[in-house]
């Protein structure tokens, strides 16, 4: 695009990012249509990349009255999948991405909408995205377990079954301050939120340095500090938590291919379940001073024991109800039941 007198139009006013005008069929040929196009080149030998991440994907092909975004990604998907069926097409979107995830455009999305944003507001942060869009935004509140459950279910219940396992769920990224450097951070809440994110269908996007509690601040550049390789300064509580969750995520059948449900959300409590006909995992946060009864009939659990994978504490399932004793302090649980 050109504004006037040969001066290019820039994306979002950034003078290092001239915006390409996809009204041009020749541009489309160069970028993704021709056999030697930019996007096809790196899918083929000797590069053989596994996928593309499209930065600010929902802004691609959008300027003024021009909005080619959906059209472009339908074409891009067709062209790339023709070269390699299993190429992974991932894009960034901070708002509701459902119109891109219906099987004809993106495979997955950086899931700010149903992961990063709602878990952070549950923890007590203002919504960073809304603060960026509405400079005078003051209507935020600390959300509860039912709000978090609604955000997760609102996203996943609209996705095609084939698309749900391809989501990229995250709590941190290069575009938002690390949660563990936030004023509202505490380790127990962090642990509970990570359990939820690791249990959601898709992949958990571990942002480098989170596993060691990398230092930083509120600004965008302060969430991009280089990796600290000095092991003696690592936060080992973080490190061991991530090691455990990664082992569980890779090793448990229910998290690799199981069905998904939110069996309980009330007050500050919210639990995710993943299950097959051989095992059931239930994880998340229980915050109640009274005993909590969690229905697991939909998961097929009638009776037996659940064992916490962190503490080895046992919980009982009777007549399809999992009982969790009340505590003054919130529990973070990750329970396993074998059928």
Throw out a few tags for this protein.
339 residues; 9 helices; 8-stranded antiparallel sheet
Layout of strands and helices, then pairs:
Blueprint: E1 2-4, E2 7-8, H1 25-33, H2 38-41, E3 51-54, E4 62-63, E5 66-67, H3 69-83, E6 88-93, E7 108-111, H4 112-123, H5 128-133, H6 145-156, E8 168-169, H7 187-199, E9 203-204, H8 236-251, H9 253-257, E10 259-266, E11 269-275, E12 279-286, E13 292-295, E14 304-308, E15 314-318, E16 321-324, E17 331-338
Helix pairs in contact: 4-6, 7-8
Task: Give an account of the 3D structure.
This protein has 339 residues and is an alpha+beta fold. Helices cover 27% and strands 22% of the residues. The protein contains nine helices and 17 strands. It has helices at 25-33, 38-41, 69-83, 112-123, 128-133, 145-156, 187-199, 236-251, 253-257; strands spanning 2-4, 7-8, 51-54, 62-63, 66-67, 88-93, 108-111, 168-169, 203-204, 259-266, 269-275, 279-286, 292-295, 304-308, 314-318, 321-324, 331-338. The strands form five sheets. An eight-stranded antiparallel β-sheet has the order 10-11-12-17-14-15-16-13. A three-stranded parallel β-sheet has the order 3-6-7. Helix 4 runs antiparallel to helix 6. The longest helix is centred in the last third of the chain and has 16 residues, at 236-251. The radius of gyration is 22 Å and the shape is globular. It starts with a strand and ends with a strand. The mean pLDDT is 95.
Short structural description:
The protein is of the alpha+beta class and 339 residues long.
């Amino acid at each position: 695009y050109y504004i006037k007198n040969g001066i290019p139009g820039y994306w979002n006013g950034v003078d290092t990012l001239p915006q390409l005008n996809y009204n041009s069929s020749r541009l489309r040929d160069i970028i993704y249509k021709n056999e030697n196009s930019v996007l096809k080149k790196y899918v083929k030998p000797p590069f053989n990349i596994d996928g593309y991440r499209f930065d600010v994907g929902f802004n691609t092909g959008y300027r003024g009255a021009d909005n080619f975004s959906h059209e472009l990604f339908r074409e891009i998907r067709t062209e790339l999948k023709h070269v390699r069926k299993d190429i992974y097409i991932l894009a960034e979107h901070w708002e509701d991405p459902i119109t891109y995830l219906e099987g004809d455009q993106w495979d997955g999305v950086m899931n700010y909408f149903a992961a990063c944003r709602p878990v952070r507001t549950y923890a007590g942060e203002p919504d960073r995205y809304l603060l960026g869009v509405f400079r005078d935004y003051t209507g935020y509140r600390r959300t509860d377990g039912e709000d978090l459950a609604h955000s997760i279910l609102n996203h996943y219940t609209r996705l095609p079954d084939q698309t749900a396992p391809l989501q990229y769920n995250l709590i941190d990224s290069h575009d938002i301050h690390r949660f563990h450097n936030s004023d509202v951070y505490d380790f127990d809440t962090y642990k509970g939120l990570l359990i939820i994110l690791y249990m959601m269908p898709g992949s958990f996007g571990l942002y480098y340095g989170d596993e060691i509690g990398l230092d930083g601040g509120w600004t965008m550049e302060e969430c991009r500090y280089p990796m600290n390789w000095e092991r003696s300064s690592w936060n080992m509580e973080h490190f061991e938590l991530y090691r455990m969750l990664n082992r569980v995520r890779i090793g448990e059948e229910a998290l690799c291919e199981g069905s998904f449900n939110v069996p309980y959300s009330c007050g500050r409590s919210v639990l995710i379940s993943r299950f097959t006909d051989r095992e059931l995992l239930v994880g998340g946060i229980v915050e109640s001073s009274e005993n909590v009864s969690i229905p697991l009939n939909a998961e097929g659990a009638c009776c037996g024991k659940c064992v916490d994978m962190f503490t080895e504490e046992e919980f009982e399932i009777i007549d399809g109800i999992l009982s969790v004793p009340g505590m003054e302090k919130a529990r973070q649980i990750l329970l396993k039941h074998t059928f």
